[in-house]
Design brief:
305 residues, alpha+beta, Lipocalin, nine-stranded mixed β-sheet, two-stranded antiparallel sheet, 7 helices, 30% strand
Length: 305
């Protein structure tokens, strides 16, 4: 995975920044605990002690509190959520249930997603530990309860088509604004579903430059962040040569009309395309390609029996 920050300004003065951070690098237990809380609840519990936080996760996930060193208990929680070896993760089970039921994957917390599935199936949320509730849904949906999952390496530069759900404007956007988007098409590799169409992602406006005198370009710098694969893996997205070339070849908004564009070479880790002129706006609904900053190993879903 690339290191550092990459910036490419699109022809329409949309600039994309990649902050390449390995998602599944070895983490401190407290970081892993916070990530588990975010996955399950959508928020952390910083006012509680570490012991209380671990116990709450265990009760909600397993229905009981375990014993032993905290580091091992946190590792067990992480393994349940994300999977390990040939084990199917909770994330993958819930995403598979959503995809097969509605052909979409909910971006919310696991609690919200499971409650949503139970409402769809039974008319309302059910009782019990999260694992038992999920297994009940799996048994009802797939009688044999088997998931065909195999590790697939998503290559660096793999293009993904997205649609903006947030307007970008060098006149109106502000640093820190969220940039929401959805995948337009399934990402499938080796006959396996990697990221379903409709998966939502959220980026952040990193920099805004308004158009100025002497033909100074307006531009918006965006970090597109990550999208969640069907197994829960967070896949980083960037705008680089492969995506820009594909946008250009298909005459999409992000790559249209390169006439008169000046390509500036890298300055440190920053490079860009600029067009002189005015403030620019990229409206909601604009589609273009971004690409994976990889390679990233992902559990790809085959046929569910």
């Amino acid at each position: 995975m690339r290191i550092g920050q990459k910036v490419l300004a699109l022809v329409l003065a949309l600039t994309v920044v990649s902050l390449s951070v390995p998602v599944y690098a070895t983490e401190a237990p407290l970081s892993a605990l916070s990530e588990a809380e975010m996955a399950l609840y959508g928020e952390t519990s910083p006012t509680l002690s570490i012991v209380e936080r671990v116990e709450e996760l265990e009760k909600d996930l397993l229905g009981e509190v375990s014993t032993g060193p905290l580091i091992n208990r946190i590792a067990t929680i992480t393994e349940l959520l994300n999977g390990a070896g040939d084990k199917v993760s909770i994330n993958l089970k819930v995403s598979t249930l959503e995809w097969y039921s509605t052909r979409s994957v909910n971006p919310g917390s696991l609690e919200e997603r499971v409650a949503g599935l139970e409402t769809l199936y039974y008319g309302g949320p059910q009782e019990g530990s999260l694992i038992k509730r999920i297994d009940r849904l799996v048994s009802m949906t797939f009688p044999e309860g088997e998931f065909d999952v195999a590790l697939v390496k998503v290559p660096d530069g793999q293009t993904i088509r997205i649609k903006l759900q947030t307007e970008l404007s060098s006149a109106k956007s502000k640093v820190g604004d969220e940039v929401k988007y959805v995948l337009v098409e399934d990402l499938r590799l080796e006959n396996r579903l990697i990221i379903p169409a409709g998966t939502q992602g959220t980026g952040t406006v990193q920099q805004v430059t308004k158009a100025g005198n002497l033909g100074r370009d307006g531009r918006v710098v965006v970090d597109f962040g990550y999208v969640r694969a069907i197994d829960g893996t967070m896949v980083p997205l960037v705008m680089d040569k492969e995506a820009l070339d594909k946008n250009k070849s298909e005459q999409l908004a992000a790559g249209a009309s390169l006439a008169g564009v000046l390509l500036l070479g890298p300055i440190g880790l920053v490079g860009g395309y600029f067009v002189k002129g005015k403030d620019v706006t990229i409206p909601i609904g604009t589609e273009f390609y971004v690409q994976v900053d990889g390679p990233i190993p992902v559990g790809g879903l085959g046929e569910v029996r």
